[in-house]
Amino acid sequence: MTEGQHRSGTTTNGARVDDARRIYTRSGIGDRSGFGRRPALVVVDLQNGFTDPACAVGGDLSEVIAATARLLDAARTAHLPVAYTAVGFHASRADGAAWLRKMPGLAALVEGTHWCEIDARVRPRDGEPVWVKRASSAFFSTPLQTFLIGHGVDTLVVTGCVTSGCVRATVVDAVSYGYRVVVPEECVGDRAEGPHAWNLFDIDSKYADVEPLERVLAAVSAPAAVAPAD
Q1: What distance lies between CA 192 and its chain's CA centroid?
Q2: pLDDT tens-place string over residues 177-226
Q3: For the whole model, what pTM was predicted?
Q4: Catalytic choice (55, 116, 161, 166)
């Protein structure tokens, strides 16, 4: 197996993961992209509605929150660009009709309410934007792409929830726009272990480098990671 591809195999059916890995390796799928020189961090939807089990679509993401807080500290120390997203709908829910037909539980996420606020354990600092979105990807109808271009970013570190939904959609769009993409394994989570593990495996194989948090912390702290933009 290639470096970094061991992770999801420990939490899904081992034989099936091994079969998939053999097929992918034979097909030339699963190499590493690595870090560029100018990373940025996007925190996807770590809002109360997803991190508080009291919400219909929430769950206990305490470990993800704690890991992301560590990464935020390192990114801020290195003066990396940081941005957040949160899912939120108008009180009428008319702006999310198609998505809400498939996931009616998201109707609890009304813009301006507690459920749309970023979890206080990873709250943004001054100058770190929070963009409300009504689709899975952090890029869809938000200024994220303009933000990244403006900062001369070539690598996007994606954290947040959920792995099988908004994290995956953001990763796919990021690589489609030409960014190197890194997903710290401990900094993403989902409502169910199966979708989380299989999507991490597939993300790592096709779109991004899924890496242990310690390796990502070391990379964002390296001198090359804080080279000034042109």
Answers
A1: 16
A2: 999 999 999 999 999 999 999 999 999 999 999 999 999 999 998 756 55
A3: 0.89
A4: 166
